[in-house]
Specification:
- The protein is mostly beta strands.
- It folds into 2 domains: 132 residues, Immunoglobulin-like, CATH 2.60.40; 73 residues, Sandwich (Immunoglobulin-like), CATH 2.60.40.
- It contains 1 helix and 16 strands.
- A hairpin with a 2-residue loop joins strand 13 and strand 14.
- It starts with a strand and ends with a strand.
Length: 217
């Protein structure tokens, strides 16, 4: 999981909130702090579904609101020197497989009476932060072979699916095709969550079978 942060007069930490749902933990905290400037910032927090495309890239357009979360407070007026601890609580059904969401922290219009001062101080751009929310069951993840085909470019495409209940991370993991280490392939930028498929494209002269694909160190 990754976090996208733009320069702003306020900060958000940590970049990833991990809820150990396998241990019964269904809440987490973030700190929103005024970090620069002499004018206030109005901030709103919402939780969105985190969707990835087949290559593992986060789909940023038209995110879906995740309705099973409560945020307190969900709107904040940050004045210079102020910081606020925000609680994020999952209120949905029991989670049996790892999940990932995005906590979207966005700057919104200031309340009446604050706008003129902000404009005078040169506030021109509103800022957005994306904080990852990981629901961790503690279960091990794995990938299963779905398909493979040769491409006109001389490369091969391999589709894998996570049919386990744990996320599959690529940290310190390589892809091996028939015993050979595949180099410079897309698809490893984010963990593969349960139920997701992932595409890998790399140099190889023919389609591969399930027994010829391996992930390991």
């Amino acid at each position: 999981m990754t976090s996208i942060v733009a320069h702003a007069g306020f900060s958000v930490k940590p970049p990833i909130v991990t809820m150990k749902v396998g241990r019964g933990e269904y809440n987490g905290w973030v700190e929103i702090a005024h970090s620069s400037g002499n004018f206030p910032h109005a901030v709103e927090l919402i939780v969105n579904e985190r969707e990835l495309d087949l290559d593992g890239n986060v789909i940023k357009s038209d995110p879906k609101l995740a309705k099973d979360f409560t945020i307190h407070p969900s709107q904040i007026l940050l004045t210079p020197g102020k910081s606020v601890n925000v609680q994020v609580v999952y209120k949905g059904a029991k989670i049996e497989a790892d999940r990932a969401y995005t906590l979207h922290v966005k700057e919104i219009a200031l309340p009446e009476g604050q706008k003129e001062e902000a404009i005078t101080m040169g506030l021109a751009v509103r800022v957005n932060y994306n904080v990852g929310i990981l629901m961790d069951t503690g279960k091990k993840g794995s990938l299963s072979f779905v398909s493979s085909k040769a491409l006109d470019s001389g490369k091969v495409e391999v589709i894998m699916e996570n049919k386990s209940n744990g996320r599959f991370s690529f940290k310190n993991i390589n892809l091996y095709a028939n015993g050979q280490k595949a180099l410079d392939f897309p698809g490893e930028i984010n963990s593969v969550m349960p139920g997701q498929q992932r595409r890998f494209v790399f140099e190889y002269n023919r389609p591969l079978t399930a027994g010829e694909i391996r992930f390991g160190k």
